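hey can u check if this looks right to u? its 160 residues, i copy pasted from the old doc so theres a chance i mangled smth
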Amino acid sequence: MAERIGIVIKKESDRYAQVVTDRKGACGGCQSTPHGCRSCLSNAKMESHVANPVGAEPGDLVKIHLSTENLYLGAAIFYLIPIIGLLMGAFIGAWASAAYGLTGAVAIIGSAAAGLAIGFSVVMLLDRTAGIRRRIMPTITDVLKSNVDMPNSKGASCCG
């Protein structure tokens, strides 16, 4: 289960909101060098489009939830489908080069690129599907504090 704390910056409708959270680095705060690693030093913010069933208002400090199953589903869609398209394109190119006497490398590279493009197109189509988009969208589960100060864009930590 993935949970984050963020601040609502914009209420888009009764059902959705824009929330800003701190972007967490891969290391989680290590001190691998005397000054920290690059992801530890950056105070980058991340804006997310989230479901808002609790009716949070702009300025509210909220808890955002995304189940592990849906997190993995989103990652699989985003990463695996283009790779599968790339591999299928390469195999089809290898088959076509043998079947039609084409230059092997040109056919394989060209069809692999086409398969990758088709894979990305499938991801874009799935992203526009309402059912999948709703399933992999984070949800505000709780309002922790109302009307907190809005974070500035200069790097002050907003969400601890």
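The CA atoms of residues 85 and 115 lie 4 Å apart.
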